[in-house]
Amino acid sequence: xxxxxxxxxxxxxxxxxxxxxxxxxxxxxxxxxxxxxxxxxxxxxxxxxxxxxxxxxxxxxxxxxxxxxxxxxxxxxxxxxxxxxxxxxxxxxxxxxxxxxxxxxxxxxxxxxxxxxxxxxxxxxxxxxxxxxxxxxxxxxxxxxxxxxxxxxxxx
Amino acid sequence: xxxxxxxxxxxxxxxxxxxxxxxxxxxxxxxxxxxxxxxxxxxxxxxxxxxxxxxxxxxxxxxxxxxxxxxxxxxxxxxxxxxxxxxxxxxxxxxxxxxxxxxxxxxxxxxxxxxxxxxxxxxxxxxxxxxxxxxxxxxxxxxxxxxxxxxxxxxxxxxxxxxxxxxxxxxxxxxxxxxxxxxxxxxxxxxxxxxxxxxxxxxxxxxxxxxxxxxxxxxxxxxxxxxxxxxxxxxxxxxxxxxxxxxxxxxxxxxxxxxxxxxxxxxxxxxxxxxxxxxxxxxxxxxxx
Lengths: 156, 289
Fold this sequence. Notes:
The complex is a heterodimer of chains A (156) and B (289).
Chain A: H1 6-136, H2 142-155
Helix pairs in contact in A: 1-2
Chain B: H1 2-15, E1 20-23, E2 29-31, H2 35-40, E3 46-47, H3 48-70, H4 80-98, H5 106-122, H6 130-143, H7 160-192, H8 201-240, H9 247-285
Antiparallel strand pairs in B: 1-2, 1-3
């Protein structure tokens, strides 16, 4: 139970061990611990950021889909509109063309009929004249009776 | 009966005597053959057993943690590193909760104190006669010593020199950081101008001086006292084994109970030494107003 120089021995050993620990033991291990803490924190932050970005991307995709749908609807309605227009236009054209053909046909018919009437009329006049010649037995003075005949012809 | 008592007291004395190396009365150097001779060696003697055990334990401690530190893994730790990280986290938490300043020395210091003191205390749980008997074998056969002169105290912390050595180390740090943080004037002012102001400087100095000196002394004596008493009880229990059919089984039960209880004490004392060191250093860092 005597105090002796062991005190100094223990003090020196204590100092050496603390210095050793402070220089070679403590820093590497705590540095590793800190680095791991940082790594974990970074990982968590990255995960959070990733989730956030995914949300944004989903939102953006939703938006793009919406826009595409709107555009498609617009294109479809435009196409329908245009189609209706085309149908109407072609209907009109067809009607007009039909009318035109009809009109020209009628005109031609009329023309032919008039021509036939005229021909008939002249032939009737000559037949009537020939008939009258035969009946009268003489030649009717063509010149004096032409006016009379013309009147007759026109009356037929 | 008389011889019996003598034997018991010799047994106890033998267990409580360090293996002291120093200069004998006749001028030669060597191990003391009795406690009287050890005491006569005066201050310039060394308790070889305490120093050897504490050095071996400290070296083991540093070797183990240095090995972990060398191949420390940032990723998933395994084995020894898990254990080391668990302890270091525990020390870090303790230090952070009682030390407010920033000083890279304090945490390694607390770490060394806690584990080293714990290991030294742990020697108390070795069977009480095991190491002394081994030392006697080695001493007698290898060095030709007198069997009764081979002392070996295996628990360094039951040697007041060891605890006082560590406490004085802490005391030096307290003084160093007090002066470094507050300057010589600040530290002297702290010792003389509190708590009663400048008109009571002698009283202040007396009070503050006592409280300053009490720090290392209480650190050393608390640890020493607890371990010495624990060791003493182990010795007394060990004596029951040779005290008859009734007392021997009782001794076994007591030994077991005291050993289990002692696990708590050795950890607690190591923790107290560490925490008080950190608190004292924190006080040394703080500016008083």
